[in-house]
């Protein structure tokens, strides 16, 4: 939460901004180098086609279906929080 009373303030954000920016830069560089392939899954149209094809093949043949994952929803939410914080830092700096 942002704010002096119950959260972090602009000074707190500025104090961690440099370290946080370095971490985000590293993650983005690793992603573009192919080191974090799951980050590109939402843009992989061939993967979506393959999944739909497999779903059609399995339709009616299974009683149960288990999906295992890495918690992408939570990761996306955390990433969104980081973006909001960076926008706040940018706004507070001006």
Topology:
Elements: H1 10-32, H2 45-58, H3 72-93
Helix pairs in contact: 1-3
Largest sheet: none
**Which whole number gives the mean pLDDT?**
75
The number of E-state strands comes to 0
Output the radius of gyration.
19 Å
| Overall tally of domains | 1
Strand content: under 5%
Class based on secondary structure composition and strand pairing = mainly alpha
* Number of continuous helical runs: 3
Q: Name the overall outline.
A: elongated
Distance between the termini: 21 Å
Q: SSE string, helix = H, strand = E?
A: HHH
| Low-confidence segments | none
Helix content: 55-70%
Molecular structure report:
The protein has 94 residues and is mainly alpha-helical. The protein has one domain. Helix content is 63%, strand content 0%. The chain is built from 3 helices and no strands. It has helices spanning 10-32, 45-58, 72-93. α1 crosses α3. The two termini are 21 Å apart. The model has no long low-confidence stretch (mean pLDDT 75).
In short:
The protein has helices spanning 10-32, 45-58, 72-93. With 94 residues, it is mainly α.
Descriptors for this entry?
single chain; 94 residues; mainly alpha; 3 helices; elongated
